[in-house]
Amino acid sequence: MKIFATRSTCSLVKACKECKANYSQRSNLINHLASEHHLDVEGAPIKEQLSCTLCSFVTWAPHKLKNHKVCIKPI
Q1: CA distances from 49 to 11, 26, 58, 59, 69 (A)
Q2: Of 2, 4, 61, 72, which has the maximum CB count within 10 A?
């Protein structure tokens, strides 16, 4: 017999400890922490910005660098 989690047994809202923003998915909260507060998954400060190897783009958030690399075309 399979047992499935129900809405009543799962925490549906993930809240940012810095600004109290709410997210339904953990990945969205992680992206928010990096973009807005420069914090990693554990809440520790991100010490250096990430940069693109093909142009001058820099960001604090790994997901933004990943999206950037998908969008740009090498010359």
Answers
A1: 32, 22, 6, 5, 15
A2: 61
Distance CA 64, CA 60 (A): 8
Mean pLDDT over 4-24 rounds to: 74
Residues 3/11, Cβ–Cβ less than 8 Å: no
Structure pTM? 0.70
Place of tokens 């339904």: 24
- In this predicted structure, what is the pLDDT of residue 73? 67
Write down the architecture of domain 14-71 according to CATH.
2-Layer Sandwich (3.30)
